[in-house]
Amino acid sequence: MKRAVIALAAVALLTLPFWLASPYHLHVAIMAGIFTILALSLNLLLGYTGQLSLGHAGFFGIGAYTSALLTLKLAWPVWLGLASAAALAGLAGWAIGRLALKVRGAYFVLVTISFAGMISLVSINWMELTNGPLGLPGVPAPELAGLSLRTKSAYYYLVLAAVAGSYLVCHRLVHSRLGRAFLALRENESLAESVGVDPTHTLVLATVVSAAMAGVAGGLYAHYTRFVSPEVFLFSYTVTMVIMVVAGGKGTLAGPVVGAVLFTVLPEALREAMPWQWQLLAYGVLLILLVFFLPRGIVPALSAWRR
Amino acid sequence: MLKRWWSTLLVALVAGALAAPAGFAQSPIKIGVIEPLSGPVAASGNYVRMGAEIARDWVNAQGGVNGRKIELVIEDNKSDPKEAASAAEKLIVRDKVPAIMGAWGSSMTLAAMPKLQEYGVPMVVETSSASSVTKSGNPWIFRISPPSEMEALGLAQYVDKLGVKKADFLAVNTDWGRGSIQAFGDMLKKKGAEVGAAEFMEQSATDMSAQLTKIKSTGGDTLFLTTAVEQITLVLKQSQEQRLTRKVVTTGGSSSPSQLIKQAGAAAEGTYHIVFFMPWFPEAMPDGKLAKAFVDEWAKRGHPFEGLTEGFRGHDGIATIVEAVKIAGKDEAKAIQQALWKVSFTGVNGPIKFDKDGPAGKESGQSKPSIFLVQIKDGKVALPDFLAKK
Amino acid sequence: MNGLVLGGTYALLGIGLTLIFGLMNLVNFAHGEFYTLGAYATFAALTLGGLGFFAALAVAIVLGAAAGALCERVLLRPLRGESIDTTMLVMIGLWIVMQNGELLAWGGVAKSIPHPFPTAPLTLGPVGIAPLRLFVVAAALALIAASWLVIQRTRLGRAMRATFQDRETAALMGVRIDRIHTVTFAFGSALAAAAGALLGPIFLAYPSMGDLASAKAFCVVILGGLGNLAGATLGGLVLGIAEELGAGYVSSGYRDAVGFVIIILVLLFRPSGLFARAERIG
Q1: How many Cα atoms occupy the beta-carbon half-sphere of C171 within 13 Å?
Q2: What pTM did the predictor assign?
Q3: How far apart are CA A112 and CA A57, in angstroms?
């Protein structure tokens, strides 16, 4: 039965552009995909190692700017841009990981927030590199064997591939020895240490992978919207990611996916459903209600219900 | 078996809901509006919306366009470029608007521009000031607000009369503030004046004493201030506390002098303001009757007087689109775009007619809005002495 | 001098948040919204209620406490056993609801809060300071002192400290944990509202003013150490003064970075905060 559901879902996803009603819905699907990658990456830190990174927008933004600048100013091919986005974001993750190692809990949160805040200020003020608040318009679209992937359908498949790839990476990671080390650290750090888990090494690795993934999402975002400005570092992006992971169900693999799709579709659905004055208020109320009734997240609640 | 039947039904229902087209048959002419209605600049976005609503009601009171009423479909871009792009896409695809007005901030407008190109829908830009908006080679953009360069040119004629020899700049750290400093700095240098310090403040900053201290030490005679009215209030108050005695000229048209008088009081005395609408003496505007009618209607609706200096943009934006629809004869995007080039009428700000701007072959439209200079004297807004009619 | 004005209010915000964060283990993203509530409450009391300035301030503080208590009872108590991420998410929801509620109620236009102080600056030697600012500093310091007294000298304060240090033992000793939670949240929110009421007349009241306040509050909490009252007080003052100095000597664009840099440096060298004693947290 489960196999059939998965197969059906796969078919639906693969043929999405053909049965979705309009390009607008496809746009929402693409954004949902990008945020799914972001949510999966944040989940690695938040769900599996138990560390709350509130600076994730920083990695996202670094990825976006890196890929945008390399493809715009140096005319690099988009694939190289995306790879560099992952690399640079991963490097930032390594730096933050090493730095934040000395602290845990609330303090780790603060370091990550400060990091995002500083990167944001740099992007606004370093005019020569980032063009500051004026942003970078005209970011090129990817090409595959001479064919431009500018159309929505093409880009959707690109994002879908990236989502599948990210999910696979997370899946392999979580079920590996490293993944068990993550869980051990989350549950009881001193105990984990005593059985030979190296917190330093493990946490830094988690941060690097998480950051690199967020960087790829950033690059994908840049080449889709074709415009990058310092707003990518807005705290609201991080908040949205956190909502997606926790409401979806942190520490599960499906949780972030469900959360990302739900919370990408929700604001757009509210856009249709009610006038602008009430949209955000409704969003907040719905969020509170969701947390109230499903405190562990959607996916864990569904699993419990099915039992 | 039953469970599968239910899930199939559910999927079908959801798919059906998603696939259902929006809107009905004999419908009004829809015009999309994208503004920042929440977030830090919510006030400005809402003023523009209020002006747009006045334009809509006036047009409909006169029978609409070609017998059809116009309807505004209003979206909030939440001061986020990503939202601006999503809003544009939703308006175009779901609401099927043939034209849009927006999106206030230059970043928001720039983010929405690729969507306009993708679907071929024109947008009238009512506030953004970044030059890149009309120079990016997007033929679906028609701007009625002045880019910073045009604004600076508008002030050039008064530089000598104001007696500006050495100017300092204090601007909000956004595309608008930076662009303004660039444009006015260039203009001043061409007129032989000196440029002193150029300081910035974050959009949400409330304490500018450090920047003001730096400015105080340059020995300049004029301070050019570019930011929204709340920050201008704070800067003026803090300048007073620091005993900064020099001419202040605000640029950008968002200074709302009436609000400044109320909130900054004596600290605003003597300051000059570049505005694009003079609601204190509307008869002095190019179409005095229209301007006065707008001011009266605004007051009738109970909107704050301070908002007029931004609200008129909403009116003129919608009025421009309406003109284009009239010329085109139908509410179809491509026809409206071509009609916009033929538009020539007088809005609240003044004459609106689009010239070509940007790379050849894919020019955007840029109108030449009227630019005015006013001064706060004796707690009231007046024309500067050298401009007052004798 | 301006550093003290900012510092005093940062301290108020920080004390409130460190109590909430430390005692209830709650990442209170809505803290800034109580700040905003304080400012708007003052405005409403002055313009709609026709109260005097000082009465309006008092109303704002009381309202902050009441709102805080209400939120704790309705939203937080039912979620008591849940993880910190869950409660954090509820606070995010509250943040969104409060901010947009204010937007709906008051509109996006900033409100100026009238005050009875003369605007001409008093001169103290080479510096000029507005009487209003002097009042704010005085009031902030008074409130800080009052908070200290409550925490250090009253039975309630003792109960709060006991709960913070060792929850189980405190419960065994008869402390009603539920009540302490409500009181703590109300107290912290009242302080935030006080900060908003005091800063409102100097700056302006608008719906998104709380975001920056929240951010600064979190900085102060880390600087001072979680749950450390003295740390929060000193941390707030230090941050305020450092920001003023930083903006003066470094580029003004990077002014907010000062706070961030301080935090990172502090955490590198003294992970438990600048003023914490050698407790190991986490």
Answers
A1: 6
A2: 0.82
A3: 10
pLDDT at B22 over 60: no
Phi and psi for C96 in degrees, rounded to 5? -60, -45
Residue range A29-54: mean pLDDT, rounded:
87
Max Cα distance, chain B (Å): 91
Contacts of A84 (CB under 8 A, 6+ apart): A66, A67, A70, A76
**Are C42 and C200 spatial neighbours (Cβ–Cβ below 8 Å)?**
yes
Q: Please give the distance of CA A214 from its chain centroid, rounded to a whole number.
A: 5
Contact C82 A110 (CB under 8 A): no
Q: Does B168 touch chain C (CB under 8 A)?
A: no
Closest CA to B31 of B326, B309, B355, B348: B326
- Partner residue opposite B241 with nearest CB, options C112, C130, C203: C130
Partner B contacted by C250 (CB < 8 A): no
C241 to chain B, any CB pair closer than 8 A? The answer is no
Residue B301 pLDDT greater than 50, yes or no: yes
Instruction: With CB atoms and an 8 Å threshold, state whether B22 touches A31.
Output: no
Cβ distance B38 to C256 less than 8 Å, yes or no, reads: no
Phi-psi region of B28 (alpha: psi -120 to 50; beta: other; left: phi over 0): beta
Cα(B49)–Cα(B31) distance, integer angstroms:
12
Of the candidates A38, A87, A93, the residue with the CA atom closest to the CA atom of residue A66: A87
Residue A30 predicted with pLDDT over 50 = yes
Residue C46 pLDDT > 80: yes
| Side-chain-side CA neighbours of residue C70 (13 Å) | 9
Q: Classify each residue of A135-150 as buried b or exposed e, where b means 16 or more C-beta atoms within 10 Å of its C-beta.
A: bbbebbbbeeeeeebb
Distance CA C76, CA A304 (A): 23
Q: Do A275 and B74 touch (CB under 8 A)?
A: yes
CB A27 within 8 A of CB A152: yes
Greater confidence (B131 vs A86) lies with A86
For the ranges A2-16, B39-53, B337-351, the lowest mean pLDDT is seen at A2-16
Which of A13-17, B79-83, B264-268 tops mean pLDDT?
Answer: B79-83
Burial of C79 (0-12, 13-18, 19+ CB in 10 A): middle
**What distance in Å separates the CA atoms of residue C174 and residue B138, rounded to the nearest whole number?**
72
Tokens of B29: 């002419």
Please, are residues A202 and A181 in contact by the beta-carbon 8 Å criterion? Answer: yes
Interface contact flag, B206 C203, Cβ < 8 Å: yes
